[in-house]
Amino acid sequence: MTKADETLALRARGLVRRFGETTAVDGIDLDLHRGEVMALLGPNGAGKTSTVEMCEGFIAPDEGSISIFGLDPIANRERVHARVGMMLQGGGAYSASRTEEMLRLIASFYADPIDVDWLLDTLGMREHGRTPYRRLSGGQQQRLSLACAIVGKPELVFLDEPTAGLDAQSRIAVWELVRALRRDGVAVLLTTHLMDEAAELADSVVIIDRGSVVATGSPEQISSLGLNDGVVASFHDDVAASELERLADALSNFDVRVRGGNRANEISIDGASSPEIFAAACAHFAANDMAIERIGRHERSLEDVFLELTGKDLR
Ligand SMILES: Nc1ncnc2c1ncn2[C@@H]1O[C@H](COP(=O)(O)OP(=O)(O)OP(=O)(O)O)[C@@H](O)[C@H]1O
């Protein structure tokens, strides 16, 4: 076993999963190390949940292999699950039990659980300690599911949209908890629809579309994918093709390419971003009565790259 293998919490190779005619997952590879947070991002139906469920050992891949701490999660389900935490959606058999009671019961299954009082306080659940699960709000149930997933001090945690439906304060509490897990050397695989969540938390981001990985790297690496120098301007109104042509004519002395931006109200000028180009472009916009909302150098967020790669908005 190499050093890299020792720190590896999860390795997936060539994962394929079909449902009838649909190939939900089409050859995905993942490597997640201890103390690393990996975010799976993708539009609806991209194959995130199917990927996670295979890694959790709940559904079998049609092709490919998964190793969790060197073990196959289906053949060694009990041994794997003793070291892995996962958020369960819905209360299931626990729906009548009270928050604190449920957490203490789950903690009692483990030799060295996280302090339940600390967890209740950290997740802002103290005042709901005696509330039955089914009476908790959606956001409270979500936080309790997270607490249940981590109370056993797992070495690897799967979090499926951990902050979906949470208010801003609770979201920050969950982010803090994920950061604390990471500091403790826990490997975290999370799915999210929130770019800021991925950018805030993840060491590595894997963008999935139609069952395949379309980009992978740190949030910074992904944001700079294919980035070239240039200017991007956004306008109050959507930009017509004729306006793009007129601007291209106005800038024909410069070595740039004019195209529509990621959004209908944007123009991208690719190639250079000198003061002369800003001046010429702004003079053209003023002469043509184009109300500029914002103009600046090319700078892309994770969300822009996602849009370019998948052609879809995250939400
Ligand atoms: N049990 C199933 N039976 C049939 N088709 C399924 C099943 N589970 C998933 N699929 C299909 O597989 C594809 C991938 O679904 P999956 O739930 O993995 O995507 P996702 O990225 O998690 O989407 P979302 O963000 O909407 O949760 C979709 O086309 C979905 O309809």
From TrEMBL:
User: Which InterPro entries does this entry report, sorted A to Z?
Assistant: AAA+_ATPase, ABC_transporter-like_ATP-bd, ABC_transporter-like_CS, ABC_transporter_ATP-binding, P-loop_NTPase
Q: Which GO terms describe its biological process?
A: response to antibiotic; transmembrane transport
> Does Methyltransferase show up as a keyword for this record?
no
How is it placed in the membrane, per its record?
Peripheral membrane protein
Which coarse location class describes where this protein primarily resides? membrane
Where does the protein end up?
Answer: Cell membrane
Any idea where the ABC transporter domain is?
A: 10-235
> One Gene Ontology cellular component annotation?
plasma membrane
GO MF terms, alphabetically ordered: ATP binding; ATP hydrolysis activity
Q: Which UniProt keywords apply?
A: Antibiotic resistance, ATP-binding, Cell membrane, Membrane, Nucleotide-binding, Translocase, Transport
- Asked whether the UniProt record includes Transcription regulation among its keywords, one would answer no
Protein's name according to its UniProt entry: Putative ABC transporter ATP-binding protein YvfR
**Organism listed in the record:** Dietzia timorensis
Classification from the root reads: Bacteria, Bacillati, Actinomycetota, Actinomycetes, Mycobacteriales
